[in-house]
């Protein structure tokens, strides 16, 4: 297990130097390229000659190290590791589990994560408890099993429920000092939330989403502060060969530099969309709305509401008609892209959760999820209103739009 970390020839701003605001840090990178290239070079190579710092790209590559150092900096971590996808991150992390181990996780979480946990439950004898992570008492009851791992999303995908990250992390460590608290921070990105600062041991993100921002690559980033954990995770990555390829590292490095401006615009647009839908009479799940049941909790641990929201329409057929009528809102899975997307989780991102389980977990079949991009807000609002009207979900009367 005592693997040597591939060293970096190109350290970015070390943690002990002056820290700037995050929107400055995200664009500030340094490298010691021999020609002082402004953009760090792409080492598109599988092998390295001689007995130097790097030998083989599966084990380490300067472009990957450069990205990992930058990500560690913006995720408030001492070590970040770049892998092929967000699911690749969870795969690496759950390799720590042994048969008989207990995992406590949410009753609302990304369908792919649910699928992987289900696989571990049925093939590796891992015991998985899906509980309402908004309720600390419910989580504490499950912690009586002394879980080896707690896996949290906040906000959850797609119901946008909020988990008290600090309180759960403390309770999990009190129940089992070896418990590894893992937070999937994909919905927030490091711009809006830093779970390591709230007591989590491991944070990961699907970099396919906000970190890259353009839906042109797949990647996952894992971040930790504990060097032993880092070593263990690096061991799995090198052993299984899921480190991110150099070109994708390079692309992700380019994408992440605009994270702050993208998120700012996406959030501003999201707030307008959420307020508009609420004014039409829909019940909207978005922590930027005062009506969100955990509004205060969310703002106590995050710096923004994010750009994903969901709402119900009352019927699956109506939801289908709505999504088919939009022009600007692309019907697509995923989120975090500069373009606005619309989807029905039960038929798309969460279709791998069987209908009985979806029902038991109160995941509404008619739920529509909106992932808001950086377009002009008036165009987004108009397009959505037109689609709602054409689908028969809203009518215009007495100078206002409302549900019929
Ligand atoms: C919250 C969340 N975590 C993880 C993932 C997995 O990421 P990837 O698609 O990059 O494997 C997704 C979506 O795919 C997601 O929505
Ligand atoms: N067919 C895919 C679905 C990917 S969903 C992507 C994203 N996390 C989202 O929430 O939209 C699969 O089976 O994994």
TrEMBL record:
UniProt modified residues of type N6-(pyridoxal phosphate)lysine: 209
Record field: catalytic activity: L,L-cystathionine + H2O = L-homocysteine + pyruvate + NH4(+); an S-substituted L-cysteine + H2O = a thiol + pyruvate + NH4(+)
MF (Gene Ontology): cysteine-S-conjugate beta-lyase activity; pyridoxal phosphate binding
A Pfam match: Cys_Met_Meta_PP
Highest taxon listed in the record's lineage: Eukaryota
InterPro entries with a match to the protein in the record: Cys/Met-Metab_PyrdxlP-dep_enz, Cys_b_lyase_euk, Cys_met_metab_PP, PyrdxlP-dep_Trfase, PyrdxlP-dep_Trfase_major, PyrdxlP-dep_Trfase_small
Pathway assigned in UniProt: Amino-acid biosynthesis; L-methionine biosynthesis via de novo pathway; L-homocysteine from L-cystathionine: step 1/1
Classification via CDD domains: CGS_like
Keywords: Amino-acid biosynthesis, Lyase, Methionine biosynthesis, Pyridoxal phosphate
EC numbers, comma separated: 4.4.1.13
Enzyme class: lyase
Known cofactor(s): pyridoxal 5'-phosphate
Signal peptide as annotated in the record: none
Lyase is among the record's keywords: yes
GO cellular component: cytoplasm
One GO process term, biological-process aspect: transsulfuration
Keyword Cytoplasm among record annotations: no
Record-stated family: Belongs to the trans-sulfuration enzymes family.
Classification via PANTHER family: CYSTATHIONINE BETA-LYASE, TRANS-SULFURATION ENZYME FAMILY MEMBER
Name the record gives this protein: Cystathionine beta-lyase
Protein species of origin: Tortispora caseinolytica NRRL Y-17796
Taxon lineage: Eukaryota, Fungi, Dikarya, Ascomycota, Saccharomycotina
């Amino acid at each position: 297990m005592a693997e040597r970390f591939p060293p970096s020839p190109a350290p970015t701003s070390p943690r002990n130097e002056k820290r700037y605001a995050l929107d400055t840090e995200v664009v500030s990178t340094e490298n010691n390229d021999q020609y002082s290239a402004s953009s760090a070079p792409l080492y598109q190579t599988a092998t390295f000659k001689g007995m130097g710092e790097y030998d083989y790209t599966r084990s380490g590559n300067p472009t990957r190290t450069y990205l990992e150092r930058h990500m560690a900096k913006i995720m408030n971590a001492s070590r970040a590791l770049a892998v092929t996808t967000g699911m690749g991150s969870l795969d690496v992390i759950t390799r720590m589990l042994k048969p008989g181990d207990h995992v406590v996780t949410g009753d609302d979480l990304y369908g792919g994560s649910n699928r992987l946990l289900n696989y571990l439950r049925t093939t590796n004898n891992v015991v998985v408890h899906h509980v309402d992570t908004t309720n600390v008492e419910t989580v504490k009851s499950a912690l009586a099993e002394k879980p080896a791992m707690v896996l949290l999303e906040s906000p959850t995908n797609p119901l946008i429920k909020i988990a008290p990250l600090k309180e759960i992390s403390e309770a999990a460590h009190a129940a089992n000092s070896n418990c590894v608290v893992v937070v999937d921070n994909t919905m927030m990105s490091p711009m809006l939330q830093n779970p390591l600062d709230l007591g989590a041991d491991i944070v990961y993100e699907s970099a396919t989403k906000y970190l890259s921002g353009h839906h042109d690559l797949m990647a996952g980033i894992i971040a930790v502060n504990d060097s032993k954990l880092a070593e263990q995770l690096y061991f799995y990555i090198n052993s299984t060969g899921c480190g991110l390829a150099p070109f994708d590292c390079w692309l992700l490095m380019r994408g992440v530099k605009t994270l702050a401006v993208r998120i700012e615009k996406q959030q501003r647009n999201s707030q307008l969309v959420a307020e508009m839908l609420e004014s039409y009479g829909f019940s909207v799940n978005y922590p930027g709305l005062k009506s969100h049941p955990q509004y205060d909790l969310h703002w106590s641990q995050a710096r923004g509401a994010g750009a994903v929201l969901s709402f119900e329409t009352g019927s699956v057929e109506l939801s289908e008609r709505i999504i088919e009528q939009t022009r600007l809102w692309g019907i697509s899975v995923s989120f975090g892209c500069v373009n606005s997307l619309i989807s029905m989780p039960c038929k798309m991102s969460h279709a791998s959760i069987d209908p009985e389980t979806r029902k038991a977990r109160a995941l509404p079949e008619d739920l529509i999820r909106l992932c808001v991009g950086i377009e002009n807000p008036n165009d987004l609002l108009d397009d959505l209103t037109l689609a709602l009207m054409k689908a028969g979900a809203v009518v215009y009367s007495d100078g206002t739009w409302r549900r019929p």
